[in-house]
Amino acid sequence: MRSFRLLHTADWHLGQTLHGIPRDAEHAGFLDWLIDRIGEHRVDALVIAGDVFDGQNPPIPALALFYRFVARAKALHPRLDIVVVAGNHDSASRLEAPSPLMTEMGVRVIGTLPSSAAGMFDPSPLIVPLHDADGAVAARCVAMPYLRPSDLPAVEEAEDVDPLIEGVRRLYSQAWSGGRERCGTGEALILTGHCYMRGGALSELSERKILGGNLHALPVDIFPDDAAYVALGHLHRAQAVGGREAVRYSGSPIPLALDEQPYLHQVVLTEFAGGQLVGHEALRVPRHVAIHRVSEASPEAALDRLKRLELDNGLARDAWPFLEVTVTLPEPRPALRDEVEAVLAGRPVRLLKLGVRLTGSGQTLADSAPPVDLASLEPEEVFRRLYRRSHDGDPEPDLMAAFHELLTGVQETM
Ligand SMILES: [Mn+2]
Question: Domain range holding 25?
Answer without folding.
Answer: 4-284
